[in-house]
Amino acid sequence: LHARCSQRLQSPRMDLCHVPASREKGWYLALMAPNVKGPNYAWLDPSRLYCHPQGLQDCVADLLQPFQGDAIDMVAGIDAMGFILGAAAAARLRKGFLAIRKAGHLCVQTVAQPYSDYSGRQKVMEVRSDAIAPGLRILLVDQWVETGGTMRAAIELVERLGGVVAAPPVCPTGVAAICMENSEGGKWIQERYKCSHCVPPHLQPRFDQHQ
Asked: Phosphoribosyltransferase domain spans which residues (predicted)?
């Protein structure tokens, strides 16, 4: 089976079948590739992590572990890379998935929220206005929380529609991302909502410093 897998998926640049003997939390972070295109791009690319069968499974499992036994009604993912992890988490939980979109893509009535992303660019995100009933418990998922602007805007959208994003100990749903940096915005979110990420404590300073 491994030989067939390797023949199909392995290339000189990307081995999608290798799994370490000891799969500690975050082992798959090493699959991410560093930025080679300059400051206008994110500093890491998780695409190879998503291509790796076991890496993706373990990443989603680690993100969901803190919410085991919690009452989650729906998973929402943020445009665009949050769609990957969000949809995978929703499938694992057997819950529905809501796409929170960048403005201009939805052909139905929407609620909009302006925000600044990690690069400082001004943007607008929106969600269909009938998707969230009051009291619905939402797990918000994105690929990364750097400055926190994007996730905070998504939280505001959900809460404006009456949805609940974890505010412990009141409700157990919350926010999940591969990494939540200790920026001012990242700390604001972690202080107010139940959060989950995949970076072990000893690696957190390196991620905060983009090393």
From this structure: 69-162
Q: Which token pair is 136?
A: 């619905």
Sign of the torsion formed by the C-alpha atoms of 110, 166, 66 and 144: positive
Peptide bond into 205 cis (omega under 30): no
Task: Say if residue 80 is preceded by a cis peptide, omega within 30 of 0.
Answer: yes
The residue type found at 16 is L
* Tokens of residue 89, six digits: 């988490």
> CA distances (Å), 114 to each of 50, 121, 175, 201, in order?
29, 11, 19, 32
DSSP of 123-140: EEEEEETTS--TT-BEEE
Q: Classify residue 163: in a domain, yes or no.
A: yes
pLDDT per position as a tens digit, 98-126: 999 999 999 999 999 999 988 888 999 99
Q: What is the pTM of this model?
A: 0.90
Residues 6+ apart with CB under 8 A from 185: 145, 146, 147, 148, 149, 151, 152
Domains in the chain, number? 1
3-state secondary structure of 132: coil
